[in-house]
Amino acid sequence: MKKNSYDAIIIGSGIGGSACAALLSHAGFKTLVLEKNERIGGFTSCYQKQGFTIDISIHVFSNGINGRFGKILHRIGLATKEKGKIQSQYLKFVPNLDRRTAIRMPNQKNYFSMGSMLTPQSKITPKPDSGNIQKTVSNLGMNKEDMNNLMNIFMTILGLTKRKIRKLEENQLTLKNYIESFTKSPFIHSFLAFTVGGMFAISPRRASAAEFVRGIQEWFGSNDMSYPLGGSIAVPQAFLEGVKKYGGDIRTKARVSEIVIENNRAKGVIVNDEFIESSFIISNAGIKKTVLSLTGEKFYENNYINKVKSLVPSNSSITFKFALNKQIIPKEFGMVNIFHKNLLNPSKKSEEGDTRSTGFMTMIPSNLDPNLAPPGKQLIIFGTLAPTKGVEDWKKWTDMHYEEILRNYPEIEDQIIFVDVSTPLDLAQLSGKKYGPIESTALIPSQSGPNRISSELPIDGLYVVGDSAGTNTHGIGTQLAADSAIKCADLIISKYKQ
Ligand SMILES: Cc1cc2nc3c(=O)[nH]c(=O)nc-3n(C[C@H](O)[C@H](O)[C@H](O)COP(=O)(O)OP(=O)(O)OC[C@H]3O[C@@H](n4cnc5c(N)ncnc54)[C@H](O)[C@@H]3O)c2cc1C
Predict the structure, then answer these.
(1) Domains along the chain with CATH numbers
(2) 435: closest CA among 383, 394, 476, 479?
(3) Predicted pLDDT of residue 357
(4) Tens digit of pLDDT for each residue in 413-453?
(5) How many angstroms separate the CA atoms of 428 and 388, rounded?
(6) Ligand 1 centroid vs 55 CA: distance in angstroms?
(7) What percent of the chain has pLDDT over 90?
(8) pTM of the prediction?
(9) Could you tell me the pLDDT band of residue 356, with boundaries at 50, 70 and 90?
(10) Is 308 a pocket residue for ligand 1 (Cβ < 6 Å)?
(11) Taking Cα atoms as reference points, which of 23, 84, 15, 16 lies closest to residue 44?
(12) Whose CA is nearest to atom 2 of ligand 1?
């Protein structure tokens, strides 16, 4: 083999890129990962500051080692499986996060434990403990009728068969329409808006009902909601350990400026003015960026270009990282979400100049892994949805949310060491994806399941992996990216490995 020649080049080291690279390296392909940033991991990357290790975004993983991450590590020999349980020395998760979550109503001091809603091993059967669910939601101010309706909705969703889910998919049903077949209660619609906002970063008006059902079944059924020791970056880091183990190379500060195409075949990439040849190329830079910019439109038929251009992203996010002198949120909680009644759609809000938050997802990483903050200090990350366009002045938004956080946690103010704020502009720069969406190709009916755009591009040897592409890939955020990695790697292995 020539020095600058590989079997597989992977552009980007997000969950999708790093996982796909690990699977291909393990399958015997000579692999090179090129990452434009100084640090690997894309949206799951982190940085160090004054003794804190801080997630660049904000993450909770609906599945940990027992989901796709463990499946990948097991497949590449970095995890063992005994009696159905996966373990890896490369990636460890904090156990029982689902029992360490709580909800708060705006400007109230009480924490309502969500953990009490779940039975210890909540497979779809036995069903979640209805007594505890009722106690928690009644604490949130829900009336009896709403409570019964919500229970009924969750029980129905958890019991839906694959055939019925496919029916929802065929009918291209949105979550809003699906829920309306049960109830019109504003409280329930608001509760589910908060839930689907946290899962897919879109409103029920846009979200695919089928993907919501799949996501809930997986999340509740696996009882594996997790956060990794070492912070979110530990996940792509573990995958890249696999790349190294099987002889692959990883380069950071390596921005690909072009994917070179000849005779409708991907031949290699240009990185820092150097041409590197490869038998095939897998881009983790997002379908739009790959097609419209890294290769250029001229290689595709018009209808394909139009299809790519018409793909819509999810909302983006504003995050606040509070490094604090002492513990403010009790250490038994790893995640405390602030749930707002009467949620509005952030895109619609921006048009109306309304910057109030849609509620906050709040992670307390140092409560989950004390090594992420200096002894006695606390790291809290607040995240809220933000639109991907139509905003010129982000300061107005960040000021408003900041005040809202302080209204909810007035005791924080005296304990601040520093606060780092990131807007959609920062997320766009980090990922290279326009507008910094939480999910690059939103899980709306026309873009999910069988309608999701393929990982295999109409150019020989060119693929896209991650949360932007992959027909019939499923899951919440990082799970979607990992699913795309598994399916894309399998496609390549079956095609190129004799
Ligand atoms: C604020 C926020 C909160 C989120 N919360 C959750 C959550 O709680 N749970 C969850 O499961 N998911 C969550 N997500 C979604 C999840 O992070 C993403 O779905 C997933 O990480 C996307 O992975 P990916 O592999 O598709 O790509 P990315 O993570 O976007 O990685 C793409 C990589 O490609 C690199 N790249 C791009 N262009 C080039 C180039 N030209 N040359 C070289 N490298 C390049 C980028 O630098 C980046 O490292 C959240 C996302 C955000 C932004």
Answers:
(1) 5-62+230-311+442-496 (3.50.50.60), 97-222 (no CATH), 316-431 (3.30.70)
(2) 394
(3) 62
(4) 999 999 999 999 999 999 999 989 999 999 999 999 999 99
(5) 10
(6) 12
(7) 75
(8) 0.94
(9) low
(10) no
(11) 15
(12) 57
Nearest CA to ligand 1 atom 19: 477
Query: Measuring from atom 18 of ligand 1, which residue has the nearest CA?
Result: 477
Separation between Cα atoms, residue 319 and residue 322, nearest integer Å: 10
Segment 104-140, tens digit of pLDDT? 877 777 787 776 544 333 333 334 445 555 666 666 6
Q: Residues 6 or more apart from 46 whose CB is under 8 A from it?
A: 39, 53, 54, 55, 56, 231, 232, 233
**Average pLDDT of span 294-319:** 97
Beta-carbon contacts of residue 43 (< 8 Å; ≥ 6 apart): 14, 15, 56, 57, 59, 427, 430, 431, 438
